[in-house]
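DM between two lab members

TW: hey, do you still have the Regulatory protein YycH domain-containing protein entry open?
JB: yeah, one sec
JB: this one, 425 aa:
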Amino acid sequence: MKERLKSLLLLLLVAGSLVQSYYLIYRLPGSDTAAKATNTYIKTDNMGPQQRIENMVYPDKMLIHMGEGKHTVFYPNSTFYKLIYARLKGRSFENFQRESVENVDWNKIRTEHPGIELTFGAGIPVSLLERVMQIQPDSLFGAERINRIWIYNAPSESKTHALFFSTQGDVMYEAAKVDLTVQDVQQHVDFGKNWIPYSMQNGGAYYVPEKPLDVVEADLEIGSYTVAQMQQSLFFDPGITRYIREKDGSEIYTDSKRSLQVRQEQKWMSYTDPAAPPAGESSDSKDMLAAVDFVNEHGGWNGEYRVDLSSVGVGQNQVAFQQYFGSYPVLDTPGFHYGKMKLDLQQGNVSTYERSLIYMKPGQSKQVKKLPAGNGLKPMLLAISKDSPIEDLYPAYLPKLDEGKLKLAPVWAVKLANGQIRTIR
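TW: and the structure you got?
JB:
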């Protein structure tokens, strides 16, 4: 009997010791952080809304070719742009065949064949296009980056041509099976008949409207994310950061590994994490997804954006998010950084993160301005092209801080071959 009591008592002591050890390890204050990965950031307050990559993959413009040398242009968020793009996203494209772009008179096709040309700036990985369009997976085509989709009808042919142009410049892919009829394409093209006519310039490099373009000028009420909010979002332990003030007036906060530089006069920040650990293999689409996730977790989105991607070195990509107001992009200028969010990624990890601290608040005043066109615009473009060939022309907004408000002034943005952006009012 005594032996049984001793055994029972020993069992109770062992059980009590195990329970006590459990609470010591898993239930003491602060023990949650010990179970987390060392690179987990402190949860911050909700600053801006989160976003999905699918909402940021769309063409920067839609060129409508109506035949007989007639053209027009639809820009993002305009009625016909949204209608046509929504319809195209619901149609399927299959059986891709790789072809050369040489030995084809593209100017003739633009001039004579009714069609729709979608442009994607520096290009979008096909793996991301598959998220927004009904594209049949293809091993060869799936590895490409596409900067242009061209859908058109050819005379006396009963099928529609759908071409996807690679950023390599000399390669395109034609979808042998397209869920679009000749009548479908013609209906989309007909939306442009009563729109502002555009004339093709420099072999289709850019288009000039023949009538002045009405664009809204806006004065916006704004707020600003605080340095404390960004510190809480970006540092593992904001309490150990040091403050340094530079001679140029910028403020630097660092924990000896990472740094946050803030320019208060421009409401602009730049975060650097040079010790970002490599994550192994990466790709364009994975970098874009990683960049979106990073912004979702560290600041959120302060407006509407379109995604862009540029290679900056071996194993390194820069993902840029171009901000839009209405149908047109907001320019990022040397004097006032605002219109772009930029992230550099190495092996899928963010090493630098640049963004504006400004966000829009309810309350704005608007008035319509006219951008020059036709014979009033062409001489100005000719003068600019003497410095460098013109690669693109598009309406945009020039941002400016004015008495605590954000003023967005409409301009023509002229993109030159040397990389410069000039503006015309």
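TW: got it. Confidence is low (pLDDT under 50) at residues 17-44. The chain is about 25% helix and 40% strand.
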